[in-house]
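Worked example 3 (structure in, sequence out).
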């Protein structure tokens, strides 16, 4: 699910991939549902490719979003309560206690919270990666 959700540098919010063509993608804003082109010169990042630095192995973004969803019962995070750096640290330590404080900046934490709120607002409730039907068929074939 997160593979189709994109962050585009210089544009607010998140976007859903609709289709792709030569040197461009057609994306739809999760906030206002407007479709626009995104070109190859834009810095585009799939949320499925993002991981959070920890002192051990990096944690995929979907696990962090899933933990936030579980702790907040699928409701948006109240950002007004997270004004100071100390409050942001405290919030993120509840979600991911082993995150690397030197490499994960406060702006990154704010961005994760913002992305979570946008996704919840757009109706996404499950952040776990979904296996495609082809993957299921191949794994069933391998078990035989």
């Amino acid at each position: 699910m997160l593979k189709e959700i994109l962050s585009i540098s210089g544009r607010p919010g998140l976007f859903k991939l609709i289709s792709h063509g030569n040197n461009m993608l057609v994306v739809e804003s999760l906030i206002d549902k407007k479709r626009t082109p995104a070109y190859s010169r834009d810095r585009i990042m799939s949320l499925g490719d993002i991981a959070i630095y920890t002192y051990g192995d990096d944690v995929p973004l979907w696990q962090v979003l899933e933990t936030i969803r579980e702790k907040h019962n699928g409701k948006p995070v109240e950002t007004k309560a997270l004004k100071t750096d100390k409050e942001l640290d405290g919030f993120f330590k509840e979600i991911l206690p082993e995150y690397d404080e030197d490499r994960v900046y406060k702006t990154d934490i704010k961005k994760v919270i913002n992305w979570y709120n946008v996704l919840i607002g757009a109706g996404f409730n499950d952040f776990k990666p979904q296996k495609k039907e082809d993957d299921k068929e191949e794994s069933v074939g391998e078990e035989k």
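Notes: The longest strand covers residues 15-21. The chain has two domains: 2-47, 50-121.
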